[in-house]
Specification:
The structure is a homodimer of 306-residue chains. In chain A, helix 11 runs antiparallel to helix 12. In chain A, strand 8 and strand 9 form a beta hairpin. In chain A, strands 1, 2, 3, 4, 5, 6, 7, 8, 9 and 10 form a ten-stranded mixed β-sheet that branches. The first copy, chain A, has twelve helices and ten strands. Chain A has 306 residues and is α/β, with parallel strands linked by helices. The interface between A and B is medium-sized, with 27 and 27 residues.
Chain lengths: 306, 306
């Protein structure tokens, strides 16, 4: 075993707060970059109220300026993709030539956009399967699940991947390694595209969307459209995956997808990465995501009228 | 010239009240079949407050039971299509073998459904290009336009068509005769499908829908989809018609399409005839109206949650 990895967490919301606290709680060195919650967390610490047992970090290593942070071996990017334009500025001070960036985000194409900005740096895409909300300053509530699926985008060798996987598992975070990041990102979109968008357009949690035959049918059509688009983009997903996702959602407690929370709080929604990027990628491969684009255009209207 | 035609108006709302009053005001025999407003109109008459000059019928010939009505040469069906299941019962008592039914409705396929129920009877489909609202019992407010486009579905000879056209024109209602009803109905859908559905799903009048680039783009995509579906169904409409419709709407005062009024009043919406019938007809001809169906499924969800 080599030297212990040093972690940095950029964005300390429902995702970054959770995974960062898990790693720190298991004894890893974790530096948090915060923005609005910096003063509060510096004084009062970080609380993760969790179904798996609460975690309280009384004195986490917090920073409000990336240029003052120690460099990191592994950076967890846990911002919403709507803030990704800030990444060059936020990451530059904390990256070393052999650092690894893990982008725990929803959508498509974020890794490809980051790569030319930091050539040589390792990039991993990760998808969080978790029900977790930020309920107050420095206060995360973890309701269910928590697994991460990771796939390598570029420049990550097996030793580094093993070390990262080891650290997460030692923090009791389940890790799945996806053999193909593109497929893994499209698989996540199979759920994200119907439920995020419809929860906003129809202002309804998952259970209500699943309670009406026509929206169930629309959800399935959107899922099939995502699967067809994925196929056009070289990612094979079985159509039975749509049925699995619907059955799993049917069994879930009423849930507000992240975009619904953004909408209810009048925050910018992840329309670009979650909708427009897949639509553009599919179009480049000759497939038109008509249903998905219809939802995206409605979302844009809703955001324009905040 | 033959004997004067006797008219019956079934459904005395924004459409039936307006055209019935116009005909009656020009001296035609018009019998009105009313439901909820019967008592009020019997006592207080029918008022059409109109940009073209108000019309007050103090003692219109009103009925609340079709079986007590005189038979009619021409029946104007001015119900919402959501009430079309009542037509056999409502029309049977007032039809003669040579009567003509004019269906002033939105949607597709209403004439084809009526024909086998009253074989031999003449059927005309009509589209009203009018801004008119029912603002109270026996009180119609006519804001703009008022022209009717009519197309023969079956069993209407030239003499009857001439007589009807003459009567309407004598009542100062502009009449256009469409050479092909199918094309005329699809042309009306080019406007109806985007604006009715989106005004409900996004709870916005036409001006706000036109104020955002993404909804303008969605409206145009929906229009093009309707034009492509029409083509599959044998109705040729130029794509420039979409641009004409958008420009005309851009110039209109803020307008609430009829479906938005239904929605705001929690009345059943014309989803079936305005959305599902065109979608089914296009599918039968090998074309899938994916965008239109997406909107329709959202509308069904909204109606299910009234």
């Amino acid at each position: 075993m080599g030297k212990d990895l040093v972690y940095a967490v950029v964005g300390c919301g429902a995702i970054g707060g959770f995974y960062g606290a898990k790693l720190a709680n298991s004894g890893k060195a974790v530096n948090f970059l915060l923005h609005s919650d910096y003063d509060y967390v510096k004084l009062h610490g970080l609380t993760v109220e969790s179904v798996d047992g609460d975690i309280i970090l009384e004195h986490p290593a917090v920073y409000n300026d990336a240029t003052t942070m120690p460099s990191a071996d592994v950076v967890l990017v846990c911002l919403k993709t709507t803030a990704n334009h800030q990444l060059p500025e936020l990451l530059r001070p904390i990256l070393k030539p052999d650092s690894t960036v893990i982008m725990i985000q929803n959508g498509l194409g974020m890794e490809r956009d980051l790569q030319p900005i930091f050539p040589g740096v390792g990039i991993i895409g990760a998808m969080a399967f978790i029900c977790s909300n930020k309920v107050g300053k420095g206060h995360i509530r973890h309701l269910d699940y928590g697994a991460l699926t990771m796939g390598i985008h570029c420049n990550v060798d097996a030793a580094r991947m093993d070390a990262i996987t080891h650290d997460f598992r030692a923090s009791s975070v389940a890790i799945t390694i996806a053999p193909d990041l593109n497929t893994a990102r499209w698989r996540k979109l199979v759920w994200n595209i119907p439920y995020n968008g419809l929860s906003v357009v129809l202002n309804s949690e998952t259970d209500r969307l699943m309670a009406v035959e026509e929206t169930r049918s629309l959800i399935r059509s959107l899922m099939i459209e995502v699967i067809e688009a994925a196929k056009a983009c070289g990612a094979e997903i079985s159509t039975s995956f749509a049925d699995e996702m619907m059955e799993a959602t049917q069994k879930m407690k009423p849930y507000r997808p992240s975009m619904m929370l953004d909408f209810l709080n009048h925050r910018k929604m992840e329309i670009s990465r979650m909708y427009l990027s897949p639509v553009a990628e599919a179009k480049k491969h000759g497939f038109e995501m008509k249903r998905t684009m219809t939802v995206a255009q409605m979302l844009a209207f809703i955001e324009a009228n905040y």
